[in-house]
Amino acid sequence: MLPVVSIVCLAYNHDRFIGECLDGLLMQETTFPVEILIHDDASTDRTAEVIHRYEVLYPQIIKPIYQTENQYSKVKHPDVVFMFPRAKGKYIALCEGDDYWTASDKLQIQVEFMESHPKFSGCFHNVDVVYADGSKSPHPLHGELGKDTFTVEDLAVQNVIPTPSAFFRARLFPEFPEWYARVPIGDWPLHVLNAQHGSMRYMDRRLAVYRVHSGGV
User: Fold this and answer.
1) Which among 144, 143, 141, 190 is positioned nearest to 167, based on CA atoms?
2) Is 217 a domain residue?
């Protein structure tokens, strides 16, 4: 049976965090199958080792790529080049290896919304910001956004979609434009490209954690 959701997880030197990330992905309680696609970008720490332990335990769900050369340094977006093309799901959910999901029904909530709202290209939710060094107290990323529907015009001005909350229909457009390879940050222009095919719905619920740490891009 094909997965309904493909979870795309990019990791690089996240050995302190990747276990918590994968636990959050694996704890999802859904009425549909999922797959977890992980890309380790030639980490120099123990990230690949940790991922492999999970792969052995969940070989039908966790499907990693272990790079021997760092692709980001070659100005390649691993999600576009290696991950999205192999995603089998109707929907794609994002979660970087240093972030994690905190609600076991996160995917179920997002799939149910998208199934009942076919004109939307995606949806996202609030997250808690956590500082790895404890320098600041955790806090919600968003206060009052003032609305729950965001158009391509809104997202072109400001990226309000936290990466671990991003959820969107797969294959909304046939290929990425040539300029995409040159942008240093991949998620913001990705959201803009998706939003050209339907608005994005904001859910004012904190279902994940965005982690701030010294190694983050």
Assistant:
1) 190
2) no
Of the pLDDT bands very low, low, confident and very high (cuts 50, 70, 90), residue 217 is low
Distance CA 37, CA 80 (A): 13
pTM value? 0.95
Count of domains for the chain: 1
Write the Ramachandran bin of 6: left for phi over 0, alpha for psi from -120 to 50, otherwise beta: beta
Portion of the chain with pLDDT greater than 90, in percent: 82
Domain of 197, in residue numbers: 5-212
Amino acid residing at 105: D
pLDDT in tens, 81-116: 899 999 999 999 999 999 999 999 999 999 999 999
In a domain, 23, yes or no: yes
Is there a domain that residue 133 lies in? yes
Q: How far apart are CA 54 and CA 26, in angstroms?
A: 10
CATH number of the domain within which 25 lies: 3.90.550.10
Position 88 in a domain: yes
| Residue 113 burial (10 A CB sphere; 0-12, 13-18, 19+) | middle
